[in-house]
Amino acid sequence: MQRILAKALSARISIFPRAVTQSKFSTLVNTVGEDDTVLPKMPPFDYTPPPYTGPSADEIIKKRKAFLSPSIFHFYDDPLNLVDGKMQYLFDDRGRRYLDAFGGIATVYCGHCHPEVVDAIVSQTKRLQHSTILYLNHAIADFAEALASKLPGDLKVVFFTNSGTEANELALLMARLYTSCHDVISIRNGYHGNAAGTMGATAQSSYKFNVVQTGVHHAQNPDQYRGIFGSDGLKYARDVDDMITYGTSGRVAAFIAEAIQGVGGIMELAPGYLPAVYSTIRKAGGLCIADEVQSGFARTGSHFWGFEAHGVVPDIVTMAKGIGNGIPLGAVVTTPAIAKVLTQRSYFNTFGGNPVCTAAGHAVLKVIDRENLQQNAFNVGLHLKQRLNSLKEKYEIIGDVRGRGLMLGMELVTDRQLKTPAKAETVHVMDQMKEMGVLIGKGGFFGNVFRITPPLCFTKDDADFLVDVMDYTMSKM
């Protein structure tokens, strides 16, 4: 039986019937390994999902191919059919439990189906699902007030959107209107969305179509791992000054950046970079936009917003993902003076500020505060990063471990000196970890960085299980 189980794991197939529960499966995989070693055991969890009676994975794949965009792809050779979620765990159509260390691409913060967030959504839906901001409703006003209280300085005017792309589009529009300039500076390797303006600001070729994208200049990425200046943020910042001097009229509309590049591979900007660039941009008449779509809402642990770790205060802050714990919701927060530019014409968003979405967002803020999720992200993230660094000492394939809180990245390379991306190995480890019950993401320009962005209710036991599974998987390569 031990050999059969080991072969099933390595071949990425299941020998268990649909009725086998995850608790039983955990006991089995904890018993044996390929060489009779004890496999890591998933932490216990008191929840059993209801039986699934829907279509199979094969049927869903057929429908996706027939009716959805061919641009849509899925992880894994044997894709997961996820049908249930509870806090930091997900369940497939067979009832098998997985530790979610990806959080729906850094989106689930409070935990899957957190009862207080669900209650807020259901209660508001029963009472009023949608009206319009042309009428009064307390949900949008209450959430805007609560959200503004989380931001520094004069950042207190909120515009609600449906996504991060839409939020960044609006932020760029406002900056251009306010400054009467068109030129924008963003950072290479950054990702800000896939609409007209945000695609221009995005600086990764794999996300840019061959359409007109004007007025955006891409500065050197202050990449502490691969960058030419290492961790010297001031040297990278000089490139922005040169761009303004030689590539613009001397005036710019805005600078937009993530404090930690998410899609770009959990790349934290070099120390000293943002303060220097913010100063340069403001001297050129521009506004500073902080893209907090992935790093905001306490994910970094040390601060509520990613930009706070750099000691700067932006003029505009954009956010999405964690703001709604999975509900389609985004926001732009700025100052009263900048916000006023939209009164020059009629700006309207049908679903921005929808009562159901804003009720969910308000509930998320309350849960983050009451359950001390920021402190948990700091404590568990510190523990997890230390353990990941211990793996780096053990395996040459790990080139870098980076990030903060529960926004961590691990870059795999085939050669530490040349930093050659280990693309195939990254996919292999992800696939094997999935078979052992752990889901992580991947990113970076070369697709060789593990993105570890779990729900903020992640525990130290969860972190230990993740690292133990990763350790076991790498030991078999």
UniProtKB/TrEMBL annotation:
Which is an annotated Pfam family here? Aminotran_3
* Protein name per its UniProtKB record: alanine--glyoxylate transaminase
Question: Its Enzyme Commission number?
Answer: 2.6.1.44
Its cofactor is: pyridoxal 5'-phosphate
User: Example GO biological process term?
Assistant: photorespiration
* InterPro entries given in the database record: Aminotrans_3, Aminotrans_3_PPA_site, PyrdxlP-dep_Trfase, PyrdxlP-dep_Trfase_major, PyrdxlP-dep_Trfase_small
Q: Which GO terms describe its molecular function?
A: alanine-glyoxylate transaminase activity; pyridoxal phosphate binding
Q: Which organism is it from?
A: Fraxinus pennsylvanica
Which superkingdom heads the taxonomic lineage of this protein's source? Eukaryota
Q: Which family does it belong to?
A: Belongs to the class-III pyridoxal-phosphate-dependent aminotransferase family.
Q: Which Gene3D superfamilies match?
A: Aspartate Aminotransferase, domain 1, Type I PLP-dependent aspartate aminotransferase-like (Major domain)
Q: Which reaction does it catalyse?
A: glyoxylate + L-alanine = glycine + pyruvate
Q: Name one GO cellular component term.
A: mitochondrion
Sorted alphabetically, which PROSITE patterns does this protein's record hold? AA_TRANSFER_CLASS_3 (PS00600)
Keywords of the record: Photorespiration, Pyridoxal phosphate
